[in-house]
Specification:
The protein is an all-alpha fold and 391 residues long. The protein folds into 4 domains: 122 residues, Serine Threonine Protein Phosphatase 5, Tetratricopeptide repeat, CATH 1.25.40; 107 residues, Tetratricopeptide repeat domain (Serine Threonine Protein Phosphatase 5, Tetratricopeptide repeat, Alpha Horseshoe); 69 residues; 38 residues. It has a 3-stranded antiparallel sheet, with no helix packed on it. A hairpin with a 5-residue loop joins strand 1 and strand 2. Helix 15 packs antiparallel against helix 16. Pfam families: TPR_16 (PF13432), Zn_ribbon_LapB (PF18073). InterPro entries: LapB, Rubredoxin_2, TPR-like_helical_dom_sf. Its main location: membrane. This is Lipopolysaccharide assembly protein B.
Length: 391
């Protein structure tokens, strides 16, 4: 009932406006009779709405169009309210009724058609919505709105090639660039090719992604992964090195393959230099712990522990603390070992229950890296968590 009263309150000023406009456009005698007829039908329709007799309400409002074709705006307002409160079927019925009017002007028909497209989107009828927006994209007044909806459709259906074409058209008149989105669409195509075991085709799409957005760390990561899979370790290292300048926060995603690539080339010195460069550029705790592992191999547990302790003083980290505890357990006496083991278990559980990734735009947390945030749908905004509980 509250929502129906909201509709009534919203439509009352519109009814007054249409009655006032009719009165100002006609002679006094004609205006009086027309205004009474319009008002009567309007309040009859409202009465049907309040009594939840929606079919009769729609028929009554359709009748208003016969008295005043421009009253379509009032009818469309009812339809929008239906959609907003989740009654999409009713909204669709209203907009279909409007479009069916043979006397309707082209301008109002396209307005109603756009709203019907929104209805279909809300109902999940993406194929019907696509057909409408493809028609309206040729109309200058509805082009941008239609392109935006088509972009949403092609992302939901994972039709990345169409998404790229629509994005390129959309950004011609857009106030901001869509290069980030387009680059990710090319990355999606690259990953599809990798799934089909077509690495050369995948590299082609990676190249296009980097042409569109040279700072696309995802494309660089895929490039390095492909080279690593092909056993081209020098090329893999070269690609992964690009992450240090592009987005060092993403580097932990590749640290195991980076380490393996250097070891495959028997280049431990090169690995040390790579890690030192990454740490100097703000590489997280995963990079620091990899470096500590190399110190351990060359100089032992004590030296590795001292290095981790130094880093923890500057960059506190639960992951770093856990590694330090593990090193101390190996050399602890029988008195200290039980306490260290208990502390290790507590810290491990603390880490296990913590999210690993965070969306910098909407705050969505997860244990999985999503290139498109499942919550706000932005691309490239989900990153490894930084600070004491993350990197």
């Amino acid at each position: 009932m509250y929502e129906l009263l909201t509709i009534f309150a919203f439509l009352l000023p519109l009814a007054w406006y249409f009655g006032y406009r009719k009165g100002s456009q006609r002679s006094n005698s004609n205006a009086a009779s027309s205004h009474v007829g319009l008002s009567k039908k309007y309040f009859t329709g409202i009465n049907y709405l309040l009594n939840e007799e929606d079919d009769k309400a729609i028929d009554t409002f359709v009748g208003l169009l016969e008295d005043d074709p421009e009253a379509v705006e009032l009818f469309m307002a009812v339809s929008k309210l239906y959609r907003r409160r989740g009654e999409v079927d009713r909204a669709i019925g209203c907009h279909q009724n409007i479009i069916a009017r043979t006397s309707l002007s082209t301008v109002y028909r396209k307005m109603a058609l756009l709203e019907l497209g929104y209805d279909y989107m809300a109902a999940g009828l993406l194929d019907r919505a696509e057909n409408i927006f493809k028609e309206l994209v040729n109309d200058q007044n509805h082009k941008q709105a239609s392109l935006k909806q088509l972009l949403l459709i092609y992302q939901q259906t994972k039709d990345w090639e169409k998404a790229i074409k629509v994005s390129e058209k959309l950004q011609v008149n857009a106030s901001s660039s869509l290069k980030t989105e387009i680059a990710h669409f090319y990355c999606e195509l690259a990953e599809n090719k990798l799934y089909m075991q077509l690495p050369k085709d995948a590299l082609g799409f990676v190249k296009k992604a980097l042409q569109v957005d040279p700072n696309c760390s995802r494309a660089t990561l895929i490039n390095g992964d492909i080279e690593y899979a092909l056993g081209r370790y020098k090329q893999a290292i070269k690609a992964y090195r690009g992450l240090i300048k592009q987005d060092v926060e993403i580097l932990p995603e590749a640290i195991n393959k980076i380490t393996s690539s250097f070891l495959q080339l028997n280049d431990r010195k090169g690995l040390i230099q790579f890690l030192e460069q990454a740490i100097s550029q703000g590489g997280g705790v995963s990079i620091i712990l990899t470096y500590a592992e190399e110190i351990k191999k060359q100089h032992g547990d004590r030296a590795a522990g001292e290095y981790i302790a130094e880093q923890l003083a500057v960059h506190p980290s639960i992951k770093g603390l856990l590694k330090l505890i593990e090193l101390h357990i190996k050399h602890a006496n029988e008195t200290a070992r039980p306490s260290l083991l208990m502390l290790q278990e507590v810290v491990s559980k603390l880490l296990k229950n913590k999210p690993v990734y965070h969306c910098n735009l909407c705050g969505f947390d997860s244990k999985t890296l999503f290139w498109q945030c499942p919550s706000c749908k932005n691309w490239g905004s989900v990153k490894p968590i930084q600070g004491i509980e993350g990197e």
